[in-house]
Amino acid sequence: MSLTTSSSVVTYHLYTFFASSCASRIRIAFHLKGIPLTSHYIDMRNDEHQSEAHRALNPSAAIPVLVVETLDPETDQTSKVTLTQSVAILEFLEETFPAQRPLLPPASQPVERARVRELVYIVTSDIFPPTNSRIATRVRGIRDSKDDKTAFVTNIMSEGFQAYEGMLERYSRDKKYSASDEITLADVCLIPQVEQARFYDMDFTVWPLLNGVIGRLEKVDAFRQSGYEYQGDTPAQYKKEL
């Protein structure tokens, strides 16, 4: 699917994997902004992300990758821009489409924008990096212990979600979502991490403010549509219908 502007046709290609929380962040943002997105599925279970073809797109051999393809109808020439790292992609999307369902407060509110980013980085810097499968699998391998992996991951997640709860207590007690009565980038990053945490049977009722935000966000179509259960590459045992 493409987006036609006054002078060009732009197609957004997302290289994704159903269980990638980083890719889910991008899916959510595109759904919220109503921008067409073409998905290309990379099977990380079979190490397709390690292939030469994928490394040509992303030297980190990671998901997601966003390729922005622009066709100039007058010259029939196509140009491509490749972006990696989910937060960089989210920032690009927000800066490209600031008026379509804004996911940051306006530039006239720098403190509020910083508050959103504080929450974004609790998830994307404090919680996600040490708990992603690449790291967690190595922890398990130290003593060949699944219990080591589970304890390591859940301890880090618990610390991160406790910090998130503390920020909600301090700044957002009366807000509908993480940082505002409107959905922001903080929420976009939060829900995919919650999905990952549920694979470890984490109980969010111990964080009442956070649990309330999660419940409200999960009723929003863009978040439901972006869930791992509803993707084109979701295996049958996990697949659900919207």
TrEMBL record:
Domain GST N-terminal as annotated: residue spans: 10-101
GO CC aspect terms: mitochondrion
Cleaved signal peptide residues: none
Similarity remark: Belongs to the GST superfamily. Zeta family.
PANTHER family: MALEYLACETOACETATE ISOMERASE
Gene3D superfamilies hit by this protein: 1.20.1050.10, Glutaredoxin
Entry keyword Oxidoreductase: no
Alphabetical keyword list: Isomerase
Pfam families: GST_C, GST_N_2
Any single GO BP term: L-phenylalanine catabolic process
Domain named GST C-terminal: residues: 109-242
GO MF entries: glutathione transferase activity; maleylacetoacetate isomerase activity
Protein known as: Maleylacetoacetate isomerase
Highest taxon of the lineage: Eukaryota
